[in-house]
Design goal:
Number of strands: 15
Low-confidence stretches: none
Distance between the termini: 13 Å
Shape: globular
Strand content: 15-25%
Number of helices: 16
Radius of gyration: 23 Å
Strand order of the largest sheet: 2-7-1-8-9-10
């Protein structure tokens, strides 16, 4: 039987491949298509018993109840030292058989499979299984995922397509993700024209959705290794906006909005109190402070701590200075996790609205 096989390759890290994979899977399920998801070669993994399971495969297994097939969803994981060992003792045939066996196990009773690559077309070449090699091995057609832009985006799409072309793998089109709303129409218009000149389909242009990159307070605490002073009950608050409270309170008040993370030196009692009072006075379904990070390793006095505790605002403490913490928060990438039902649902909505799913299913 003919299986619909879609291979997702991405040019930039954090281009939103997981969003597209989640959305495509949900779109297939809505159409009554029994599909599987796999990531043949993974690099970032979690340990499940004796197995090393790629993080994306683990997410899909947990969300869509595939956990009994974790090994098949993630047959090869590259951990520290793997590439050096492989160069000294290559075993291409063995790896190919493992990937094919898992693919066949997953597709034996299904109509479609979404295959996640691991980076751009050439990633994995060091172990003889680049994304282009894997796509050829599995007889898959490819969708390239890139972030918004025009000239650089088209240049890099062509570079990646050349590697797939060299392996005789068909690229059925491109999905552009994270396009800023004010540039959306312009970027879409020029990419449609520019890519069509190269004979490449534009399968979708997805606007930037802040929710998908918005971390929870518990993720920030984990990523930055910070202790929780109080407010553990609300650590799942979503951070939509970050402010550095180094200004005078009468200026800071204009920057407080729903979902704000306040970064303040632990001795800036004025701004700490302003954040708490704004949260309590305007505490309704439409407004809440997401959390606070006290910097410089400074704790306020017990009376202020008691007030913070009673506000139920999640408060973390860092020994770093305020601007170092701000930089770390900005740079922390929080991938979609199984608890992020809002992000998973949003992925489905975005793909349904902005991606030509029918064309994808017709050409694979």
């Amino acid at each position: 039987k003919k299986i619909k096989t879609i291979f997702l390759s991405w040019i930039y890290q954090n281009a939103g491949k997981t969003t597209v994979a989640l959305g495509l899977y949900q779109a297939m399920r809505e159409r009554g298509i029994n599909a599987a998801i796999m990531k043949p070669v993974g690099q970032i993994y979690v340990s499940v018993g004796d197995l090393k399971i790629d993080k994306d495969s683990y997410l899909f297994g947990e969300v869509f109840k595939f956990s009994c097939q974790w090994h098949d969803m993630s047959p090869v994981t590259i951990d520290r030292g793997y590439t050096e060992k492989y160069i000294l003792n290559p075993n291409k045939d063995h790896l190919g058989k493992e990937i094919l066996k898992s693919f066949n196990n997953l597709t034996s009773r299904r109509q479609a499979i979404i295959i996640e690559g691991t980076g751009h077309a050439g990633v994995g070449s060091v172990i003889d299984f680049s994304n282009a090699d894997v796509a050829r091995l599995l007889g898959s057609k490819v969708i390239i995922i890139s972030e918004g832009g025009i000239g650089k985006t088209i240049d890099e799409i062509m570079l990646n397509k050349a590697l797939f072309d060299a392996q005789g793998v068909e690229v059925i089109g491109v999905i552009i993700n994270k396009v800023l709303p004010d540039k959306y129409d312009k970027v879409k218009n020029f990419l449609e024209k520019g890519l069509s000149r190269k004979g490449i389909r534009l399968l979708g242009v997805i606007p930037h959705q802040p929710l998908l990159s918005a971390p929870r307070m518990e993720q920030i605490a984990e990523k930055l290794g910070l202790d929780v002073l109080c407010g553990k009950i609300n650590l799942r608050n979503r951070v939509k906006h970050v402010i550095v409270a180094a200004m005078e309170p009468h200026n800071m008040i204009h920057y407080l909005e729903d979902g704000t993370l306040v970064l303040a030196s632990g001795d800036r009692v004025d701004n700490i109190l302003l954040a708490v009072s704004s949260h309590l006075v305007r505490d309704s379904r439409s407004f809440k402070i997401a959390g606070m990070i006290l910097t410089g390793g400074l704790k306020p006095n017990p009376a202020i701590l008691e007030l913070l505790s009673r506000s139920h605002i999640p408060v973390l403490i860092s020994s770093d200075d305020t601007f170092t913490v701000a930089t770390k928060v900005e740079q922390s990438i929080c991938k979609i996790e199984k608890k992020d039902k809002d992000k998973i649902e949003e992925s489905g909505r975005l793909v349904k609205k902005f991606v030509d799913v029918n064309t994808i299913l017709n050409v694979v």
